[in-house]
Write the structure tokens for this entry.
Amino acid sequence: MEELKTTGESKQFIVIKLGEEQYGIDIKYIENIVRMQHITRVPKVDSYLKGVINLRGEVIPVMSIRVKMGLQPDKETKSSRIIILKLGMNGQIGVIVDEVKEVVTLESDQIEKIAYDSKEEKDSFLYGVGKCAGGLISLLDLNSVVLENL
């Protein structure tokens, strides 16, 4: 009989696609996942802030992670989704993703923390890389992706 490992703690991540890359978002931050819908533009905001949506009577700002990370602008497809994130005291924000793939559970020993140079901005959006059967998943640091400049 095999002994169960009780070492590290496990975390669940929603795996999303941005372009050809796969990223993981810690499931504890996710409030809802909705299909793309009409986004009302808001004047004089940063280019990565796409506007606001009305979700069940609540106005929620929506941002493009792709634009924020310096990637190509979003191309809306049937697979595009808006993930509604809980930001504690800051309320909620929607982020546009190309596709929502799956939920994965990673043990702490499957997560490699990233040591980065603060000048390397794109890397600062990640806090680690998860290793799972499907390969490597870059784990998004939502504090630096979403909260910075809000």
User: Anything to note?
Assistant: The longest strand covers residues 10-18. The radius of gyration is 16 Å. The first helix runs from residue 65 to 68. Residues 1-6 have pLDDT under 50 and may be disordered.
